[in-house]
Amino acid sequence: MNRRYRETTHPTDDQIFKIATAAIAAFNAGYPVNLFITIQFYVAGLGPFEAQRARQCYLKHIGDWLRKVAHVPSCYVYVFENNPGGGLHVHILLHVPKTKLKQFHGRRQSWAKASGIPDKSCVFRSKPVGGSNDPSSKEYWRQLSWLVGYFSKGRAPGGPTDFGPKPRDQGIVIGKRAGYSQFLGRAIPRKVPSSERKEFVRAFLSGTIPTEAHHCTKRRER
Fold first, then answer.
1. 140-146 — which CB contacts under 8 Å span 24+ positions?
2. Contacts of 19 (CB under 8 A, 6+ apart)
3. Cys-Cys with 15: which of 45, 60, 150, 178 at CB 3.0–4.6 Å?
4. How far apart are CA 33 and CA 54, in angstroms?
5. DSSP string across 14-28
6. DSSP labels for 6-65?
7. Residues linked to residue 135 through DSSP beta bridges, in sequence order
8. Binned average pLDDT, 10 residues per bin, the chain of 222 residues
9. Looking at residue 19, what is its pLDDT?
10. How far apart are CA 146 and CA 152, in angstroms?
């Protein structure tokens, strides 16, 4: 089935593993995710296909701006949810240089308009990732592991993945349920046994920086 029309009820273990390793890859590359954004497509009045197009367009505008103005690559991970209480929305973890945050927030309305997202009240929420002023701190890693766990909360209950917060129904999503930027995708290992993926995520969500992270990516100087 064409991915555009595919319906899913839960993020897979593989998707959760890739979100975790992408977040670590961003840190290892020198671009730690430091901004948590939520876009409420239900509040904006957008359906599933419109929401997927809007998400893609919005992140492209951000990526273009980051490369041209901030001179950094686009580093993000995202997950769609469609729970009964909140409706269709997307959570995004993103890197924006601290010196460019004010400019970044000033562009939101123009990017939203260009992406077909009505800038209504409560459509956009954003906040800094706790501890991101010092990404090498224990507090940052505690917050990052909590957020990746939060991204994983829609996993199937009673499944083989016994980590993170208690699973909660996050509804049916049409199209891509989770993803990451192309830049981070290059650092995600492809051939990792299922048991090792689960152990990696368990260690990460328990607040431990897994030693496997050093095998997944290499620290690069900016």
1. 140/32, 141/207, 141/209, 142/207, 144/23, 144/27, 144/32, 144/33, 145/204, 145/205, 145/206, 145/207
2. 77, 79, 148, 151, 152, 178, 180
3. 178
4. 21
5. HHHHHHHHHHHHHHH
6. -EESS--HHHHHHHHHHHHHHHHTT----EEEEEEHHHHT--HHHHHHHHHHHHHHHHHH
7. none
8. 76 89 93 97 95 97 97 97 90 97 94 92 93 92 90 74 70 94 91 82 72 43 33
9. 93
10. 10
Per-domain residue ranges for the chain? 3-211
CA-CA distances (angstroms) from residue 213 to 26, 77, 132, 216? 11, 17, 19, 5
Query: Helix %, strand %, coil % for the chain, to 5?
Result: 45, 15, 40
Q: Is 178 left (phi over 0), alpha (psi -120 to 50) or beta?
A: beta
- The structure's pTM equals 0.89
One-letter amino acid at 86 equals G
| Domain 3-211 class, CATH top level | alpha beta
AA identity, residue 44: A
Strand ranges of the sheet holding 87-94, from the earlier edge strand across to the other edge = 124-128, 35-40, 87-94, 76-83, 178-180
